[in-house]
Fold each of these.
Amino acid sequence: MARSTSLSRRLLLGAGVFIALALIVATVAIGFVLRHFVQSQIDQRLDTQIIFLSSVVKSAGGSRIAISGATDGPPFDRPGRGWYWQIIGPANTLRSQALDGADIALPNMPPKPPKPPPRPPRLEDVTLDGVRPADGRASDGMPLHFRVFETLAGDIPITIIASAPRAAVFVPLRIAMTTLAVSLLILGAALVLAMIFQVRLGLRPLETLRRSIVDVRNGASERLPEDQPREVAPLVSELNALLAENAANLDRARAHVANLAHGLKTPLATLSLALTGRKHGADDQQEAAQLVALMERRIRHHLGRARMAALSGPARVRTPLAQRLRDIVDAMQKIHAGKAIAATTDIDPSLAIACEQQDFDEMAGNLVDNAFKWTQSRITMRAVASGPMIQLTIEDDGPGLSDADIAKVVQPGTRLDESAPGFGFGLPIARELAELYGGGLVIAKAKGGGLAATLTLPRAGVT
């Protein structure tokens, strides 16, 4: 059993997955941008402090260095907060009051020899092309982010270090990301609701079309409304064309049935009078036989026209040839199990005929049954495609027929062997059915003796 699917479920699932992926990507991208922005703000503040320190550090004689003026402005004036600075010289080290005499423990960093400036550095001349970032911990274990700059105080090489707590980056980032996540969740929920509304609105014409089809089936309407959305309009046009075709076929079939009823009315009345009359001589019997033959011809004529009317539309039937013939042969082998018959087939499994299955079973069943009745030991079946038609040939190695008998055998009611069961209508019915489908039936002598019956029928899928 095929698993049922839902268009709305497909659309909602696909759009939901897309929205979820888009929100995840947006969260990651915005988080990366925010982190970079916050980190750059912290680095800019540390670099400003380094520039200020490099402008106030002086040589104090020998290899010692000193600072003139106040250097511990906010936030570097708060002990234990992680905002520290430190200047390392050859003979002494200067540090912020927030360090309380402790030193900043830097991770191992390879030294970078500075280029001596042409003159003592001033605030407007200091550049931080050689600044290096680093991460480490304070003496109390607090995670810190460092900015390290190596320069000269006069002719004394110094290393200026400024630090900020990692929390200065993560806390604002966490607050911003929490707000962002809540906002994106609200946005996602709004998009899902909008998507549900859009899917229902978009599929509403299909529900309207379903109700219109129910009206047609219940007889409340003969056609589907033509006023449809552009995407559904071609389907509605095809359905209306199919309804019109079916209605026309039904009208033709009704007309043929009515013609058949009128055509049989008079012969039946005459036959009734002939059979209920006082005399039942040879003339009455001959007249009755003529009336029966007349009714038989009219029945075949009107039923044939009715079948052709039903088949006048586009072919919608497809019967696999090899499979149906194999089923018929299997059934015949069981019926004629007392005879040792070798039945072989040479048919491409892809061949199919544009013929109702029950009609093919009736035609092929008659031909295969005759072959099994009269064959000695062998039956050969083969099929070839010839343009839009397929020719099915069934051969047996039986006694065969003369040319005169071959012409008689396709006449209704003709039986060449009265001892064999049957009424003599099998081959005529097979021929008439084949002709109704635009094909035919040819009976001929087989090359190796016996009889060869060639049934021609239209090929499915070929116009």
Amino acid sequence: MRSLLGNVVVAVLASLLTWWLVREKAPTPPPAPLTQPVFPAKWEIHPPADFTIAAQLAMPAVVHIRTRNTGDIPAFHRFFLPDDEEGGEDLFFPGTGSGVIISPDGYILTCNHVIENASTIQVTLYDNRSFRASIVGTDPSTDLALLKINAEGLPFLEFGDSDELRVGEWVLAVGNPFNLTSTVTAGIVSAKGRTLGLLKEKFRVEAFIQTDAAVNPGNSGGALVDIHGKLVGINSAIASMTGTFAGYSFAIPANIAKKVAQDLRTYGKVQRAFLGVQIEPLTADLQKESGSPVSQGAYVRDVYGGSAAEEAGLRAGDVIVEVEGKPIRSAAELTELIARHRPGDRIKVVYYRGEKRQEVMVRLKGRSSEESSPRAEQGSFLPNLGARLRPLTDEEKDQLGVSHGLKVISLGPGPLQEAGVRPGFVITAIDRKPVKTIEEAQAILSQSEGGLLIEGLYRKGEKAYYALSLN
């Protein structure tokens, strides 16, 4: 018995000794290698810290805008206009901002609040040449405006795809803060699809790109570009308690700006499509209420009667998750995507009704039949006059007792407005030459220098003559 017990003890001690020796002599395994980040191939060509190419492309295409304003100071004044003036009736006050040349023939995109209430608009180019600008059109719903100067062969920025812009990507803000011309700052995209509630329009479109590039008063209307020098946004607002940069700035996405600019240039107003739904972000409570299996999307609170959505069969409680193949993660993203379309466009909408995923083709509508009326009915913009004109209809000719004429549809800063011409005035002759078509007016204006005489009449048959200065 003692012999057996002794053998067991010896065996245990031998096992412990063997374990200790193996532990001490065994080599320590090497640490696991760290996974290296994979950088996009484009950084091999354009290092992320080198912005010189983008800056060289952007600076010549960004202009300095100065305005002489009358009336109340616009609501956006606290963000981007000098705050040393107080608004009031019959008060003239200076405004300043930036703009982006988007075509070689002088079309300039800026923010509506930069030129709102402006009586005159002066544009200074990168090479210090100065021009008087006319307003082609404005869109308060997106805070955008399109201007025109009489110049050719200008440097301009090409539009990039703001949908492809990623959070964390480098961007440059180019503008004229505090009247410091051609200032470039850098930052990253902090977020996309931000809704701030800054615009007061009923049908506002807010889906801002948020960045931490420094933006200050005077930057508004300037360019937000990627590292390739493509225009990805129009700088519009800052988040600040002081009116100066405090860490975050916001830009209107280029994909919205491009569509607005095209519409203003073609029609003089934005052809905005409407889905006809009241939407809100999909919260956890709304997800539970709708029975949807998804946690991101635009929750349909209500559907307007007679709208495109109602005709397509959408209902309150549906959750829209995709439009034309693009995912919808928020109400702001849906608003932005619909804003890129025109009345009459057909789009595919994917949505959840309860747990069931469905899709439907929707033919978008405008707010009124006027939204999609042809360009001929809305007239043509003549930058030399700062006005939109159209030929008289046969009915109007009979009413006025004339055989020809061009009717003033709308007026912006320019010679006609300065001379006191009112909308509705019918131009029958320019420098004593009868004008029947827009082309005839343009031909006469292109040959005129200095001043000219405008003849015409108002609806009541009241004849009027105006001497204009084109300088």
Amino acid sequence: MSKVLLISNDVIGMQMAGPGIRTWELAKLLATEHTVTLLTPTRTDLQHPRISTQVSTQDCVRACADMHDVVIGQGQILSRYPFLLGHSIVKVVDLYDPSPVGYLETTQPHTIKGQLESHHALVREHYNYLRAGDVFLCASERQWDFWAGMLMAAGRINPVVYRSDRMLRSLLIVAPFGVPARAPGHRRRVLKGVWPGIDPDDVVLLWGGGLWEWFDPMMAVEAMSIVGRRRTDIKLFFMGVKRPNASVTTSHTADQTIALAEQLGVANRLVFFNDWVAYEDRENFLLEADLGLNIHRDNLETRFSFRTRMMDYFWAGLPIITTEGDPLSDLVKQNQLGLTVPCGDAEALAHAILRAADDQATRQTWKLNCLATAKEFSWDRVFEPVVAWCRSPIQARDKEYTDVWNSCVGDSGSWPKHAWEYYLQRALHHYRVTGMRGLATRVISWSCGR
């Protein structure tokens, strides 16, 4: 049994978003066999008999680090508490949200210089995380490829690590977002016949999360305007517009979506907006809905994303209409969980909505397939490698060599300024690897221009 410290960079409470949910669920699972302390940016209103919770002040984090074997958190915790970078505590860095990519989609400073400075600062921070961490978590095989490239560039994929683990699965662990092992339960009516404007027999489409910049909720609103020309009993409900973390302002995308719905005359008639749904209450909304929407843009963030709202759709057996391009939309096709449409095509989305609304029998098939898929993503399954790793946490074996790597890449003065310097460095490399005979062969090939 280990003493595990989890530090959340987001609010954990009755109302919380993906990062908080992931940390809370991991804490509960680890607490079944480890001693767990959870630090949160604000006081939490959630309790667990085996989890000690505190607010994450600088002094608190420092004291807890001295008393625990392992710290787990998203990379930002190493920026907020930089003394952890050099601390001896074993560090698990959760990279399930590739923020350097997501940042490219967020509201930017007005000047290109400001954009570059902000982006470069974020990338530099992540290189520090990659150099400081002992093991890393990501959410999918596609993310694994992305972070493996970053780890290679940061010097963390090297002969020391590679000799003991040629597939690097003990350095970079795939641990997706998950769902509860229990089935969701419907405890109270929240939408049909209850929410003003949504009738008991309406077909309800659910937007199961926030309206962040990498999503395309305006496409969904445009599609609903098209759908409304044929049917007025199909409604779209946005579960969350205002993020529970008060330090995160409402996104421009949310403001623009609400304005578009009002402009098209569908707000509070075909399209409805809610502030945020409490974590334990979300299953009531999921179980009353008929279809789940996941509409994003065609960009780099989509390619490496892992849409946490899709997990809730699986869990509730909620058939899905999604745009293409991310790993989970591929799973929708593969497992026949619903329909996929091209990014940016509101007409195609409207057609898919009408088709799904008209075909209750097919929706039932999709529902059963979603429920079967959900079993693969239960929290105890996706986090089992993390729980197992925490039983015998060790520092990465290559940590003692990081100074060598940093001296190689950090000093621009060591870069070749002339061709002969390049060839000298390559000659030393070939001598170390192949000996004098191999070096002689290489020198001959260079002299022949090959």
